[in-house]
Amino acid sequence: MATFHISTLGCQMNQADSLKLSAGLQELGYKDAISEDKADLFVINTCSVRQHAEDRAYSKLGILRKKREHGEKFHIVVMGCMVGANTKDLRRRFPYVDLWARPQEFEPILDLAVMERDVSLGELGAFDMAKTYAKPDGPTAYVPVIHGCDKFCTYCIVPLRRGREESRLPSDILDEINFLADNGVKEVTLLGQTVEAYGHDLKEETNLAELFEAIEDIHGIARTRFLTSYPKDMTDRIIDAVADCSKVCEHFNIPVQSGSNAMLERMRRGYRIEEFEERVAKIRERMPSASIATDIIVGCPGETESEFEETLDLLERTQFDVIHVASYSPRPGTFAYRKLDDDVPKDLKKSRLHLIEEIHASSAEKTKSAELGKIVEILVEKKTDDQLTGRTRKGQLVHFNSNASIGDLVDVQINEVTSWSMRGTQVGVFDLPILSI
Ligand code: SAH
Ligand code: SF4
Ligand code: F3S
Prior knowledge:
The protein is built from 13 helices and 18 strands. It has helices spanning 12-27, 51-69, 88-93, 107-116, 158-162, 170-182, 208-216, 236-244, 261-267, 273-286, 305-318, 335-339, 346-369, and strands at 3-8, 31-32, 41-46, 75-80, 99-101, 140-144, 146-147, 166-167, 187-191, 223-227, 251-253, 291-298, 322-327, 375-384, 387-391, 397-401, 409-417, 422-430.
């Protein structure tokens, strides 16, 4: 039987796309090779958000080229955000790649896969990729609800590679979530680059809050998560729905990127820091225990010392639970690449990055310590012998010993905190949360 292997780089959106492709290939009779050593079809699902992500794809390609040189026979497909409208340059640099496919461009990959088997897609009975759902491999699953991005922040490649915002129909999404629930999934994470933009582009306009409410009625699903939030799109209606829907986890991922208004303007983020803080205040007013994560970029074009200090001040004032920090990486094709100088010296970027990493480490520690002694609900995601691992509603990783099973919701008392995770003791097991009627 023909086999495939998919390497996935980048964000949750790519992970969801890879699973979908994997489901499509399996429909065609291919088998997941699991091992990275040998397959008939290798797919690299790439990310372009920073140079480092692209470099990882290049090194994977280098390994495949060597295999080819040793006489092994297989196809190589590069898909995802590294692939733009024009692949001429890439084709020239990597002539041994058989196929380049943009994000979500599954058909040519499936065509290549069937060609290999000497049959046509028609003979195999065409199937609709839009309705081909990946069989879940655990109790959690990602569900993209809105593709693309319309925001065009000046530094960001995503809109150029993933295209304009396009929401899926609520009926499609709910069908998929029902399918997932029937196959043992307890927690779904709704995905979008700006997930609160969901629904505005549909003929029958809807919004994320309505989607949350519809998921409340899906039997089997115990938790709903969502990412990524965009401060401007985060309406009161959505924040209220997070607070009111019992399944929706009070965990927000809201990238702020910078604490300086001048910088936010250069980034064309479309909000002022006061508006961002007002949104955070609203969340904390409705859900005092909500956990809030953010993203920061340091060293964007023109970032002065005082602008950077404004970011530090914001972090001090806001006390995020998690801070993802990255150093600015110029992306060819973006506005910043074309029009703004990458003028913050490398060393300065590095020291700003380290400073924020330290702040992150200490806030993460603080957030975890605040859980000491508390009883929290864990969804068990992994089990090795009697050692279980799962996450709290806030997304924190917890280890504990018990004979519970993967997919169980378990009450655990936290009694130990390390810099990476938390440990606890089980206090009760139940199948599903009590559904509100
Ligand atoms: N849609 C989300 C996330 C997009 S990409 C948002 O609005 O923020 C994920 C993260 O990568 C971003 O939050 C940003 O912090 C980082 N990022 C994007 N472009 C970057 C670049 N050119 N250099 C460094 N970091 C970047
Ligand atoms: Fe990129 Fe901005 Fe869109 Fe996020 S909102 S994906 S940072 S352009
Ligand atoms: Fe990377 Fe594309 Fe995601 S650029 S971060 S894989 S949307």
